[in-house]
Amino acid sequence: MRDEKKEALRKTLLAWRGALDPAWRASANAAAVAHLLSHAWLGQAERVALYCAIRGELDPAPLLAPLWQMGKILYLPRLEAGASQIRFARHQQGEVWQRGPFGIPQPGPDRAQIEPGAVDLMLVPLVGFDAQGGRLGYGGGFYDRTLAGQRPKLLVGLGFAGQQVEHLPRADHDIPLDAVVTETGWCFFGEGYGTR
Ligand SMILES: Nc1nc2c(c(=O)[nH]1)N(C=O)[C@@H](CNc1ccc(C(=O)N[C@@H](CCC(=O)O)C(=O)O)cc1)CN2
Ligand SMILES: Nc1ncnc2c1ncn2[C@@H]1O[C@H](COP(=O)(O)OP(=O)(O)OP(=O)(O)O)[C@@H](O)[C@H]1O
User: Residue 66: which of 98, 30, 99, 90 has the closest Cα?
Assistant: First the structure.
């Protein structure tokens, strides 16, 4: 069943994100990337999953060069046509991506895949988030289904601060985030995360 409140929030938040001034967007994107790179959570992670941005999502592309330099092992979502779960495929440096379902660029089918539970730091895109670590996506439930029962060590959302809402309806299947990084810095959710 579609949640009407989520549907309305999604519409408002996507309109807000789509209307961002390009110059502001670029500088906010760069600021968020800098916050992400400067935190110990990144330093400790060996296997990092990112995403190829679509539709005005905060773009993790500027992270690629620094992450290679740090020797990280990188993964990107790979969707098979008709699948209800995301696979995470190894990203090789300089690889030319293929277009997958929804037109999202992704690694080829021959790439080594990793179980989501073996990822140290998974960065996920957001339509919205709340102060309890709730995440709103496009409504496909792909991340929730993929991460049910096999969470990465750290699940971190990437978005703009204006994508925060007071409260998202929480469904049983929703997988809460450990933190969100925006242009204003890190927000940690849950007990003790703020001190890590
Ligand atoms: N950049 C990026 N990659 C990602 C995701 C994502 O949200 N962002 N995903 C996270 O799950 C997975 C793909 N999921 C997606 C789900 C829906 C739509 C989408 O555009 N949906 C249409 C409705 C399509 C329909 O209902 O048939 C829409 O919202 O207009 C895009 C990606 C894996 N890769
Ligand atoms: N673990 C699960 N098992 C079965 N169905 C699920 C599970 N998680 C989510 N779903 C289904 O996916 C649908 C969409 O979920 P939701 O609105 O939370 O998506 P979303 O988090 O916004 O999207 P996405 O994860 O694709 O970015 C729901 O109707 C739900 O039934």
Answer: 30
